[in-house]
Amino acid sequence: MLATIDRVEGEMMAEIGSTPDLARLDELRVALLGKKGRVTDLVKGVSSLPPAERPAAGQAFNELKRSLEAALLERRTALAEAALEARLLAERIDVTLPARPRDGGRIHPVSQVTDELTAIFADMGFMVAEGPDIENDFHNFTALNFPPSHPAREMHDTFFLEARQDGEPLLLRTHTSTIQVRHMMANKPPYRIIAPGRTYRCDSDATHTPMFHQVEGLVIDRRTHMGHLKGCLIDFVRAYFERDDITARFRPSFFPFTEPSAEMDIGCRRTKEEIVVGEGTDWLEILGCGMVHPNVLRAVGLDPAEWQGFAFGMGIDRIAMLKYGMPDLRPFFDADLAWLHHYGFVPLDLPTTFSGLSR
Length: 359
What we know:
By secondary structure, the chain is α+β, with helices and mostly antiparallel strands. The protein has helices at residues 2-18, 22-33, 38-44, 54-90, 109-123, 137-140, 177-186, 226-240, 294-299, 316-324, 337-343; strands spanning 127-128, 134-136, 160-161, 170-172, 191-200, 211-221, 248-255, 258-270, 275-277, 282-292, 308-315.
């Protein structure tokens, strides 16, 4: 019996060592050690041995089982490691390759247009400034010459938050003009900045959302006048829409933080289906602007007799809709991958004024 066990063990070890995969190895384990397996059948033969030989045979079978279980575990570990290695080789990605447009994601139009604005104004010598989304009354209203009774201070227009311990009201900024205030208070003039970012107002329809994106610009020095403002913005719209024939006009308006104030219109052609910028005889309002109000300069510690300049602001989402033909603002925030695939932009294709903004 002991000789038989030694012979069978050698055969079984050879089978285990030659098993090609984990599935076959599991089948072999059942065939060897299962309730109806070969080792179980051999153990049944111990009862037919003389009583004196049974202890040695039982011990030999126990050793056989332990050896087979160890061999099976070792083979399973080796096959699992080999399978993992093969999978890693098959699924390997070369991260040094450029992104494939058909497989990669898309840049959201808001991010694309923000980059386009940054590229245009950077060529004009502007720098990008940033500030917090949660503001106080001074930076959002008082420093910008909003009177205490102005409608924008009411709850139906502004998202107010719980006041701080000192009682000062907090709110979600309603414009990125707050960044201009903070920049002027933290730096010495002259200033030439744009301030893109999220803003928040209580409004929601096809062309308004409670959270939207805005960019504002500011130029402060000793000589800047309204002519510089008009030239800067006309150059901007022609660069942004990539047409040199865009006409523009400036209509008198009112904003608390500028005086005189104006709204800028650009020439367009309207139909029921579309608005074509740069053609036709109609006009489309695109942004607000004006010369910085002396009270704003005083609020940040500047002398209006020495310093002057202009400011402007526009909705990033809105000018994205105009340029790229989007009929509704609300899908901008729906996280719809099909919409993003249609309107989005190829990653790593950064807009520049010399190679093209939109490609």
